[in-house]
Design brief:
Blueprint (H helix, E strand, L loop, with lengths): L28 H28 L1 H35 L2 H7 L5 H34 L8 H12 L4 H23 L7 H21 L3 H4 L1
Helix pairs in contact: 1-2, 1-5, 1-7, 2-3, 2-4, 2-5, 4-5, 5-7, 6-7
Length: 223
C-alpha cells in the first residue's frame, strides 16, 4: 500500500540513513500503515451490503455503489495528501530534514510523488481503465451485469490499490469462471453476473495479494 516500503533514492540526492525522519516511520507508523487496509476492508463489507440491496431493489440501490466509488477515490488522494503534509512537518521540525526542503531540485516534491502520490494515481488510472472496459463489455453483453456492477468494480479496484490490483483483476475473471461452473452444474443456471466474483476477489486480494506478488517476485518491481 501507499508508503510502506523502504526509502527510495531518487533525483540524484542521497537519502539519509535516519529513517525516523520519514513520516511513515514516525510514532504514527502503525496507524498510517494499517489505515488503508482497514479502510479497504470496510469498503469491501459496504460493497457487499450495497450489492445485496441492489439485487433486491436495483433501481434504488445502484447509486450507492457509485457514491462508494467516489468516496474510495477521495480517500486514496486524501491519504496521500495527509502523508505529504505530515512528511513536510517532520522534515521542517528537524534541522537536518530542513536541508531536504531547501534542495534546489525540488527534492521534497519528487520524494512525495514517488512515496505517496504515485500509488494513488496508478490505482485510479488502472481502476478507470478497467471501468471503461467493463462499460464496453456491459454494452455488448448486458445479461452478464446487474445495475451498479461496473461501479462496484471501479470502487473495489481502487480499494485494493496498486500493486494489488494486478492480482485482483485476473482473479475476478478466474472466479467468474468458477462461479459459472458451480451455477451450471449445481443450480442449472446459465448465466453468472460479475458482482460476487468482484467481492470475493477483493477480499482474497486484501488478505493475500502482497504475499502472492512477493512469491512471484513482482512486489519489489511494482511497489
Amino acid at each position: 500500500m501507499v508508503g510502506h516500503g523502504p526509502l527510495k533514492p531518487s533525483i540524484g540526492v542521497r537519502v539519509p540513513a535516519r529513517q525516523q525522519m520519514d513520516f511513515t516511520n514516525s510514532f504514527l507508523n502503525p496507524f498510517l500503515i494499517y489505515l488503508p487496509k482497514v479502510f479497504s476492508a470496510g469498503v469491501i463489507l459496504l460493497a457487499a451490503f450495497f450489492y445485496l440491496r441492489v439485487l433486491k431493489n436495483p433501481e434504488d440501490s445502484a447509486s450507492r455503489l457509485k457514491k462508494l466509488a467516489v468516496w474510495v477515490i477521495g480517500f486514496r488522494f486524501f491519504y496521500a495528501l495527509i502523508l505529504t503534509l505530515g512528511q513536510y512537518f517532520v522534515w521542517n521540525e528537524d534541522q537536518f530534514g530542513k536541508l531536504f526542503l531547501k534542495q534546489p531540485n525540488n527534492y521534497f516534491i519528487f520524494y512525495s510523488w514517488e512515496r505517496f502520490w504515485l500509488d494513488a494515481v496508478l490505482s485510479a488510472v488502472i481502476a478507470f481503465l478497467f471501468w471503461f472496459f467493463l462499460k464496453a463489455l456491459q454494452k455488448k453483453e448486458s445479461r452478464f451485469f446487474c445495475p451498479g456492477e461496473t461501479e462496484l468494480g471501479l470502487a473495489l479496484t481502487i480499494a485494493v490499490g496498486w500493486p494489488d490490483c494486478v492480482i485482483f483483476i485476473p482473479l475476478t475473471f478466474l472466479l467468474v469462471v468458477l462461479f459459472s461452473l458451480f451455477r451450471m452444474i449445481f443450480l442449472k443456471e446459465s448465466y453468472t453476473t460479475i458482482g460476487w466474483p468482484f467481492i470475493f476477489a477483493a477480499a482474497l486480494t486484501l488478505i493475500s495479494g502482497s504475499a502472492v506478488l512477493s512469491s512471484l517476485g513482482l512486489l519489489g518491481v511494482l511497489n
